[in-house]
Amino acid sequence: MSEEMMRAAAFDVHGGPEVLRVMELPAPQAGPGQVRVRVRTAGVQPFDAAVRAGWTPPNVTGELPRIPGNEFAGVVDQVGEGVTGVAVGADVLGFSLLNSCAEYVVVPAGDVTPKPAELPWEVAGGLTAGVQTAELAIDGLGVGDGDTLLVHAAAGSVGTAAVQIARRRGATVIGTAREENHPYLRDLGAVPVAYGDGLADRVRALAPGGVDAALDGAGGHALEVSLELVKDRARILTLVEHGKAAELGIKVTQGVRTAERLGRYAALYASGAFAFPVRRTYRLEEAAEAHREIETRHGRGKVVIVVSAG
């Protein structure tokens, strides 16, 4: 019997976005405790670009080619031994360290959650990274009622989620973004502020009582401003300047993704209580272009690859 094959956006050498191409690779099979999902959509994020460029995540082994992508939505088409509560044919969304940018992905059954019918496939495929990272960060910063939180790159997918989560917890949120994204941030409940020279002074004018915490999704000057404005460095968390965090005494995201958390935000989106816009979708053959776009670190909302139409 011939081996089952699948199409995947993968790379066999590390490098820029151009190393990503569609390959025919062996399709994974669900083992005990696992499910296989026929992927409809897969989100793209800076983590994927780092893997493609040569970074190896902890506990990852194996030779190239490698398939990036750690968030997906699709239809369960295999259920492994011992799995209960997930059936073949179920619409789900979930997460995986790698391998999501392919026609099939295999994950532990506990790493998927049902997709509400009201949640579009494009949103479902890119939801997990934004909401899980944002909630873990907000939890790590201890943001709550009465706090003033500064969010850098507030119009991006993680920033969009963080603004809403912090507002739901009673915090005032000041969000940095390009001028064209200021109306969008106001709609989310944030007070927008422009990047560039004089940022610290502009934030001080908006927060006469001071800034209690900062979530840095931009790095560079944004992190410098955060260090200047927030007294307690344990209440600064960076999503991008990981190499500087220890020496500066600031935080990076800690904790694990869960299907429970993902399911909560899927339900909130489905009920109209949570916004998560998709900036642009790409076909599987356009994965390199999707990576180029996320590496600009600009733009509103999420970049998603449409792997299959159904």
Please characterize this protein's 3D structure.
The protein is an alpha/beta fold. It has two domains: 5-115 and 277-306, Quinone Oxidoreductase, Chain A, domain 1; 131-248, NAD(P)-binding Rossmann-like Domain (Rossmann fold). It is built from nine helices and 14 strands. Strand 11, helix 6 (221-229) and strand 12 form a beta-alpha-beta unit. Helix 2 (121-141) packs across helix 8 (259-270). The longest helix has 21 residues, at 121-141.
Give the arrangement of secondary structure elements.
Elements: E1 5-10, E2 21-26, E3 34-44, H1 46-53, E4 71-79, E5 91-95, E6 104-108, E7 112-114, H2 121-141, E8 148-151, H3 157-168, E9 172-177, H4 182-188, E10 191-194, H5 199-206, E11 213-216, H6 221-229, E12 236-238, H7 242-248, H8 259-270, E13 278-283, H9 287-295, E14 302-306
Parallel strand pairs: 8-9, 8-11, 9-10, 11-12, 13-14
Antiparallel strand pairs: 1-2, 3-4, 3-6, 3-14, 4-5, 5-7
